[in-house]
User: Which sequence fits this backbone?
């Protein structure tokens, strides 16, 4: 994905939803329906997915043992990507049937990006499918900002970085960046209850 510029938090606010039932169920169940999220572009495929207010992963990974299985009924699916308009829709899941959602992210004309002198923040975090928030705004998954040639381009100054995933305790750290500074954040998320996830992961 390369280096990313993320919108300033004043232009990206986390939308709050009510917490619903868990969205991942181990194995197959005849009562459940499947939701498949499909994207064509790199932006689409790397966008984060929230089901009933809970972050479940990014588009391209939600298949196989990470497929979304839901109880029958109405559910709300939100797709988010830094600098793009949030895509939200309600769906009705039927037992033993598949619902396909096509992602088409559109750039947000009101998004403000870091410009001029920037600093670089790289991540070495497991699991790398966890969501990353800067100053409260979702900016992508850990995977997008780890590895050779991948980093967040962040404006110098103070920022709060939070990394979280349902089933793990959130990791939060404050950073104070100098112009052109390069840093790496390293951590392993600690397994925990869904109740320990913060509001950005499961919106209270």
Assistant:
């Amino acid at each position: 994905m390369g280096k990313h510029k993320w919108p300033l938090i004043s232009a990206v606010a986390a939308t709050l939803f009510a917490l619903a039932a868990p969205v991942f169920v181990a194995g197959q169940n005849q009562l459940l329906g499947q939701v498949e999220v499909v994207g064509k572009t790199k932006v689409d495929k790397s966008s984060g997915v929230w089901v009933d207010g809970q972050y479940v992963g990014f588009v391209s990974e939600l298949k196989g043992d990470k497929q979304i299985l839901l109880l029958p009924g109405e559910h709300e699916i939100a797709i988010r990507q830094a600098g793009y308009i949030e895509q939200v829709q309600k769906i009705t899941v039927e037992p033993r049937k598949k619902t396909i959602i096509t992602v088409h992210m559109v750039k947000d004309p009101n998004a403000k990006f870091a410009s001029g002198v920037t600093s670089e923040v790289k991540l070495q975090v497991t699991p790398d499918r966890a969501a990353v928030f800067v100053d409260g705004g979702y900016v992508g998954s850990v995977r997008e900002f780890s590895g050779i040639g991948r980093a967040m381009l962040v404006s110098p100054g103070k920022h709060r970085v939070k990394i979280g995933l349902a089933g793990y305790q959130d990791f939060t750290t404050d950073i104070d960046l100098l112009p052109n500074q390069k840093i790496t954040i390293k951590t392993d998320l600690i397994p925990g209850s869904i109740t320990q996830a913060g509001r950005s992961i499961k919106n209270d």
